[in-house]
Each structure stands twice: as structure tokens, then as C-alpha cells.
Design goal:
heterodimer, A: 128 residues, mainly beta, OB fold (Dihydrolipoamide Acetyltransferase, E2P), 5-stranded mixed β-barrel, 3-stranded antiparallel β-sheet, B: 390 residues, alpha/beta, Peroxisomal Thiolase, Chain A, domain 1, 11 strands, globular, binds zinc ion
């Protein structure tokens, strides 16, 4: 999939440590991933807002076997679905997580680091 | 307006190729071989076929797949289409075929699918192609694998309903128990819950034996109108109901991790069939990983939401159980050549409803439900089949 202007704007946010969500001024919905319309009401009155950072774990797993060589050095790692404070759910990884104690519903905080390549990506850490 | 499809069409032919490791045939050849065998099973000649539905292959993708298969066989259909909704493709194709027959687009349709994930691709290629179901920018960049996507569902069900790894394992054990009685199955050696739990962890909580096989194989059916289905070599197996539900593509955007669009697919199929769960003698449920079966049992109404674990551990799914599931061994133990996988659940259902399964024939096989899903519990299709239309 080639990157659209929206995708590039999202990636530019990540590059400076900002997780950009879209806010709809017509209905107040906040969404991820970036779309040309509001998924709730269909309006295109969307603007970027930066996620505050806190989220909760919706689900997680420890990946013990990777396919793509660029992830093999990172094994094993915890991928997770994160429910952001602003509402949207996103896929990410939880860094330094202990899978034996990690639970669905645990609080996490946003961070940025390269993951599998040089680009800064939104990742999460278990909240202190 | 909806055409009344209940009992309007029937399956008159069904055939599988050899499955498992079949290095001497490529995906196209598996698809063609299955189609020709199903046509023969129906007592027809290829010239009698005026409709063809296929799905594309991962090992040997062809841009205009159904057209290429028709050309290879030298048939010249008036209805020719490739479908793709992941593993749910199989029964979406049945839905298309029934509608095409009912509306006169074609009289006699072959649905044929084949692929060679085991011999036509490296393990890495097959895994990478299948994991491309994830969003390229917002999911795949974190290094998910297909098992890891399904593990997210499994973990959520455990947290919400107290489901255990041992209960998931029961589904693999039941599938293997069925496969043990099926000479065509790729894996036939019986396994225990302990075997599943002792197998290598792939993506917590999924062990190796919670995951389906990687196989080669082809499978095909012939469908026609109920009128034309009379006086064929085999008694017709009627399509009573079919329904689909589509809720998302990417698991990050699923409405729920623990309740799927199998709910709508089932409700639509039951409504068309004028049937309910109590009418179903056996079921074939999509089992790319054990948790999918557990959730489908709930979502298709075989047990209450949250009780899939207890139901799976009750022995109900096994040979001789109250609801035998995946009587050929399923994707877990019979074979899983990618998108064609559910075709084997369909041909098995047809053979069971013909009372043609020899030693493993079910004692009661009048009405069955078959279900498939594609993506990551994304697209669902359910079909209700029966020996008779009442
Ligand atoms: Zn809106």
C-alpha cells in the first residue's frame, strides 16, 4: 500500500514523538487509523490531535516466532491492542513487559522508539 | 425483494484431491483435478457446466483466476467468477452460486478451489502471505504473525469468560479424534490435552497444536437447481439456508474481540432455513486456530456466550458426542491449504448427508451447519444443508 498524504502526516507526527489521532468537529468523535472521513458520522471536518499517552491493554500476546527477519532480533516481544484514553483502539507493542504478570486492563503509557526499522513508532510501557 | 433460496438448489457432486503433501501437482492442477472429479461424481460431462467459481491461489496467483481455470479445462461458462473473502470465501461462493442458479445466471455451477501452501511455497512465504491480512501501516509494522492475531482473541476470551488453555486444547483433541477415523486426513495419530499443552508455545496462549496445518489440496462441488438435482447418481443434498456477516478486516477495528459476525451469519442462515440450533445434527466450524471454534460455538447458538469452554470440554464435539464438529478432522488435523480449506468441510458434510462415510458415518446426519470465516474473525458465512426439504 502506498502512503497517502494522510499517512505521511501521521508518520511525520511519529517522527517528532507525537501520536496523531483525528478529531471530528462535527460529532466530536476521535479516531485511529487516519481516514478521509469520520467513521462515526461521515463528515470530513477532521483535524489532528495528539494523543495524551495513557491507555489500557485490551489484549496482548507474546510473539515467540517471527516471520520477517527484521523482527527476529527483537524476539520474544509482546504485541497488544491498546485502548487509548481518547477512545480509539490501536495495535502496538508493550516494551519490557512481563507476560506472566501482564493483564488485560492494565494501564500503559505511550513512548516512541524504532521497531524493526529506523522509523520511530508509537510503543507502550506498563505504567508505574 | 429477496429470492427464496430455501431448498431451491442442491449439491449433486463433491470431490477432494489427495491432501497433505502433494508436491507433484501445482495449485492450478489441484483446482482442475478437483473440479473434474466433482463433475464426474455428479454424473456430468464438463460441457454440462455453465458456471464456474474459484478462489485465487497464494502459491500460484493468477490475475483472472476463474477464467484461467475455465480455459485450462476448456469449458466456456456463461457465469465465471473468482471470489475472495479469506477463509470465508468457500461459503460466500456457495451463496453466490445459489443466487446465480436461482436468478438464471447459470444452471449448473462448479465451485473449485486448490492451493499448495505446503509444497508450492516456503514456510516463510506462506506465513508472510497469510499475515498480510494485517494492516500494512498500522498493524504489520509491529511484527505480528497470524497466530499472534488470533492469540489476541483467545486471550480476550480467557480474560472475559475464564476460558482456559485446556479448554482450547479440547478442540484440537476432538478434531484429531475425528481425523483418526478418516484415512484421507493429514494427521491421524490421537493426541491428548496434555500433548497440546506440552507442545511449543507459538503466541501465548496458542500452542503449536492449537494451530492448523499447512497443506496442499483441492476440493470441488457441483451445484444445480433442486429440479435438475433429481435422478443423479447421488441423492441431492439441499441448501436450506445461507447467511453472511462482515464486521471488519483488521483486528484493531473489530467491534468485539470475543463476539464475531458469525452471530449475524448464523441468524441469517437459520432464518432462511426456517431452522434452529436444535435441528442441527453436526457442524463443521472454521478451525484455523482452536479459539475460533470455541467462539463460533457460542456465536452460532450451540451454547450460551461465555460457555464455549465448558461445552468444548464436555466431549460434545468428539465422535459420538451430542454435536460432532469437524467430522473429517478440520483444518487442525485433516488439511489446511489456505483459502480452499473449508471446501473439505463442505464435501465432508455432503458425504455425511449422503450417508456415504463408511466406518465414520455419523449415526444421525439429516441436517448440518457448516461455517467459515476469513481474515481475523472478519468475514463469516454459514450454510445449512439437509437430505430433505420439508
Ligand atoms: Zn464525526
Amino acid at each position: 500500500m502506498s502512503n497517502s498524504a494522510l499517512d505521511k502526516e501521521f508518520q511525520a507526527g511519529c517522527a517528532r514523538g507525537e501520536l496523531r489521532l483525528q478529531h471530528c468537529s462535527a460529532c466530536g468523535h476521535t479516531q485511529f487509523y487516519p481516514r478521509i472521513i469520520c467513521a462515526a458520522c461521515g463528515n470530513d471536518a477532521l483535524s489532528w490531535v495528539a494523543a495524551n499517552g495513557p491507555g489500557t491493554v485490551a489484549s496482548f500476546t507474546k510473539v515467540r516466532q517471527a516471520i520477517d527477519p527484521k523482527f527476529k532480533d527483537l524476539l520474544p516481544y509482546v504485541v497488544a491492542l491498546i485502548d487509548l484514553q481518547e477512545g480509539p483502539r490501536m495495535m502496538s507493542v508493550i516494551i519490557d513487559a512481563d507476560v506472566d504478570t501482564l493483564q488485560i486492563g492494565d494501564s500503559v503509557t505511550l513512548d516512541f522508539m524504532p521497531w524493526g526499522d529506523d522509523a520511530l513508532r508509537p510503543v507502550f510501557k506498563v505504567a508505574e | 425483494m429477496t429470492a427464496n433460496l430455501r431448498g431451491a438448489t442442491a449439491f449433486i457432486g463433491a470431490a477432494d484431491t489427495t491432501v497433505g503433501v502433494v508436491p507433484d501437482l501445482n495449485a492450478t492442477e489441484l483446482c482442475v483435478q478437483a473440479a473434474l472429479a466433482a463433475i464426474k461424481d455428479a454424473g456430468l460431462e464438463k460441457g454440462d457446466i455453465d458456471g464456474l467459481i474459484t478462489c485465487n491461489s497464494m502459491a500460484q496467483p493468477i490475475m483472472y483466476h476463474a477464467e484461467a481455470i475455465a480455459e485450462y479445462m476448456q469449458i466456456f461458462p456463461r457465469y465465471c467468477s473468482s471470489v475472495n473473502t479469506g477463509g470465508g470465501t468457500t461459503f460466500s461462493a456457495v451463496h453466490h452460486a445459489a443466487s446465480a442458479i436461482a436468478t438464471g445466471m447459470a444452471d449448473t455451477i462448479v465451485i473449485s478451489m486448490g492451493d499448495s501452501l505446503r509444497s508450492g511455497m516456503t514456510r516463510e512465504q506462506a506465513a508472510k502471505t497469510q499475515s498480510s491480512t494485517g494492516h500494512p501501516l498500522y498493524e504489520q509494522v509491529y511484527g505480528q504473525t497470524v497466530p499472534s492475531y488470533y492469540a489476541l482473541i483467545a486471550q480476550a476470551h480467557m480474560a472475559e469468560y475464564g476460558t482456559t488453555q485446556a479448554q482450547y486444547a479440547e478442540i484440537a483433541v476432538a478434531a484429531r479424534a475425528h481425523a483418526a477415523g478418516n484415512p484421507t486426513a493429514q494427521k491421524r495419530e490421537p493426541i491428548s490435552v496434555d500433548d497440546v499443552l506440552a507442545s511449543r508455545m507459538i503466541a501465548d496462549p496458542l500452542h503449536l497444536l492449537d494451530c492448523s496445518l499447512m497443506s496442499d489440496g483441492g476440493s470441488a462441488v457441483v451445484m444445480t437447481s433442486a429440479e435438475r438435482a433429481q435422478d443423479r447418481p447421488h441423492a441431492p443434498v439441499y441448501l436450506l439456508g445461507v447467511g453472511e456477516g462482515h464486521s471488519h478486516e483488521h483486528i484493531m477495528a473489530a467491534r468485539s474481540l470475543t463476539t464475531s459476525a458469525a452471530v449475524e451469519a448464523g441468524q441469517r442462515a437459520y432464518a432462511m432455513a426456517g431452522a434452529n440450533v436444535a435441528d442441527i445434527d453436526f457442524a463443521q466450524l472454521y478451525d484455523c486456530f482452536t479459539p475460533t471454534v470455541l467462539i463460533e460455538l457460542e456465536d452460532l447458538g450451540f451454547c450460551a456466550k461465555g460457555e464455549g469452554g465448558d461445552f468444548s470440554a464436555s466431549g460434545a464435539l468428539k465422535p459420538g458426542g451430542s454435536l460432532p464438529v469437524n467430522t473429517h478432522g478440520g483444518l487442525l488435523s485433516h488439511c489446511h491449504p489456505g483459502n480452499p480449506g473449508s471446501m473439505f468441510a463442505l464435501t465432508e458434510t455432503i458425504q455425511q448427508l449422503r450417508h456415504n462415510c463408511g466406518d465414520r458415518q455419523l449415526a444421525k446426519a439429516e441436517t448440518a451447519l457448516v461455517h467459515a470465516q476469513g481474515g481475523i474473525m472478519s468475514s463469516h458465512a454459514a450454510v445449512i444443508l439437509a437430505r430433505d426439504v420439508q
